[in-house]
Specification:
Strand content: 5-15%
CATH class of the largest domain: Alpha Beta
Strand order of the largest sheet: 2-1-3-4-5-6
Shape: elongated
Radius of gyration: 25 Å
Order of helices and strands: HEHEHHHEHEEHEHEHEHEHEHEHEHH
CATH superfamily of the largest domain: Glycogen Phosphorylase B
Length: 412
C-alpha cells in the first residue's frame, strides 16, 4: 500500500514545484516588464565621464534597466573626432588651445547646431524608448533636453565640474518639472550662475562627486597593497597623476623628484600614455628615490590608500577621488589651466585639502615637507555621498514628473 502511494506523492510534488517555478518566472517577467529604463548619455573626452558612467551603473543597475550611449557616435557632427582631438591635446599639454576650442569655438558651433542635434537625438530616443534620460556630458545638454522634453521624458543633468558653465550652455529660465540639474557640492559660484540662467532652486539638487565605490572604503590592507605593487616598506609614497590620458609632464615631475635628498618611492601613473614608459626608463637612477611605472589600472584607490601625497593636474575626477581618500594634493599651476578646473582648485585650497605649485623648485620643497611630516586630511570630512543620493534623486524626478507634468513649455 505504501509503495503504491509513492508515485502519486511524487506526481503531486512535481506539480507543486512546477507551479511554484512558473509563478516565480511569471513574477520575474512582470518585474522586468515594470522596470523603468534609463538612457545614460556620456562621452570619451576624459576619464571623469567614464568614471561617472561606472558609478551610475554600479548604483542604479539593481532598480532600473540601463543603456549607455555616446551621442558623438550617433551620427552627430564630427562623430568622435572632437573627443580624440581633445584627448591628444590634453596629453601634449596644449591647454590654451583646448581653452579656446572648448570655451569659444565649441559653444558657438553647438549653438548653431542645436536644432540638428535635437532632431538626431530625438530619433535615438524614439528607438531606445527610455523612461528617463541622464546626461553626464557638457555642451549639447540643451539639445538633449529639448529632444527629451518633446517626448515627455524626464531629463536629469549630472554635472561633473565645479564650474558648470559648459554644462548649461543655451539654457535660460527652464522650470520644467521633468528637468533636474545636479551639483557635486553647494557653492556660491554655481548658485550665481544658476541664478543668471533663471533656473529655479526646485530644479537643482546637491548630489556629490561621482566617485567609484573603491574610494569610499574605510580600510585598506596597506601591507598587502605594497607587496602587490612592489612598493618598498620603508619609504613614503608620492603618487604622480595627470588624468587617464597621461601627460608628458609626468616625465618632468619624475626627473625633478629623483633629485630629492630624502628617501621616497614614486608611483608614476601614465594611464593610456604608453609612450611615456620609454622616457621614464631612460631617466638616470637616484640615490634616495625609486619609482614604479603604473599603467592604466582600476586599482587607483588602493594606490591612493598607501600614498603620502598626490602630485596632479587640477583634474576634477582625480581631485574628487583624492578628497574621498583623504589624500593631500599638490596641484600643478605652473602653466595654463583648463578654465573649468580653476574654480575647483580654489575650492580644495580653501578647504585645506591642497596646495599649488607654479615651478619645480616649489614642487620639490612641498614634496619634501609632506614626506618628512606626513599629513592625513581631516579638514574636509563630510562630502556628499553620490552613491547614497542618486537613487533618491532619480526616484524623486520620476515622482515629480508623473504628478506635476510639464510646467512650462515656452523655453523649448
Amino acid at each position: 500500500m505504501f509503495l503504491n502511494t509513492i508515485p502519486l506523492v511524487a506526481v503531486r510534488w512535481c506539480v507543486v514545484v512546477a507551479i511554484s517555478v512558473s509563478t516565480i518566472c511569471a513574477q520575474d517577467a512582470v518585474q522586468r516588464a515594470e522596470r523603468q529604463k534609463i538612457l545614460i548619455l556620456t562621452c570619451d573626452g576624459g576619464s571623469g565621464h567614464k568614471s561617472a558612467a561606472t558609478v551610475l551603473e554600479q548604483t542604479l543597475r539593481n532598480d532600473y534597466d540601463l543603456e549607455f550611449v555616446n551621442p558623438f557616435t550617433c551620427d552627430i557632427i564630427l562623430t568622435q573626432a572632437g573627443e580624440k582631438i581633445y584627448s591628444t591635446l590634453l596629453r601634449w599639454n596644449f591647454i590654451r588651445t583646448i581653452n579656446v576650442l572648448n570655451c569659444t569655438i565649441a559653444p558657438i558651433f553647438f549653438h548653431y547646431q542645436r536644432a540638428s542635434i535635437a532632431k538626431r537625438m530625438g530619433t535615438v530616443f524614439d528607438e531606445k524608448k527610455p523612461d528617463m534620460v541622464i546626461s553626464i556630458m557638457p555642451f549639447i545638454n540643451h539639445s538633449l533636453y529639448q529632444a527629451a522634453h518633446e517626448r515627455n521624458i524626464p531629463f536629469l543633468l549630472i554635472t561633473l565640474d565645479f564650474d558648470i558653465r559648459l554644462w548649461l550652455h543655451d539654457f535660460k529660465g527652464h522650470t520644467d518639472a521633468k528637468f533636474l540639474v545636479t551639483l557635486w557640492t553647494e557653492n556660491q559660484v554655481s548658485k550665481r550662475y544658476l541664478s543668471s540662467k533663471k533656473i529655479a532652486p526646485d530644479n537643482v539638487q546637491i548630489l556629490g562627486p561621482a566617485v567609484r565605490q573603491d574610494f569610499l572604503k574605510q580600510h585598506h590592507d596597506k601591507a598587502a597593497i605594497r607587496t602587490t605593487w612592489n612598493i618598498p616598506d620603508n619609504k613614503p609614497v608620492v603618487m604622480l597623476m595627470r588624468g587617464g590620458t597621461g601627460s608628458t609632464k609626468l616625465t618632468d615631475y619624475t626627473k625633478q623628484l629623483l633629485t630629492l635628498k630624502h628617501p621616497a618611492h614614486l608611483l608614476v601613473c601614465i594611464g593610456d600614455a604608453k609612450t611615456l614608459e620609454t622616457q621614464l626608463k631612460a631617466l638616470p637612477p637616484s640615490e634616495h628615490v625609486t619609482f614604479s611605472i603604473i599603467p592604466k589600472t582600476d586599482k587607483i584607490a588602493d594606490l591612493m590608500a598607501v600614498s603620502t601625497v598626490l602630485v596632479t593636474a587640477p583634474s576634477p575626477n582625480t581631485c574628487n577621488e583624492a578628497l574621498y581618500s583623504k589624500l593631500p594634493m599638490l596641484i600643478d599651476r605652473s602653466g595654463e589651466s583648463l578654465i573649468w578646473e580653476k574654480a575647483g582648485v580654489r575650492f580644495v585650497q580653501e578647504n585645506g585639502c591642497a596646495e599649488v605649485f607654479r615651478n619645480y623648485r616649489t614642487l620639490k620643497n612641498l614634496v619634501t615637507k609632506y614626506i618628512t611630516q606626513p599629513v592625513k586630511l581631516e579638514s574636509y570630512k563630510e562630502l556628499p555621498r553620490f552613491d547614497k543620493r542618486i537613487n533618491n534623486v532619480v526616484a524623486q524626478l520620476f515622482t515629480t514628473a508623473s504628478t506635476k507634468g510639464v510646467l512650462n513649455n515656452e523655453h523649448c
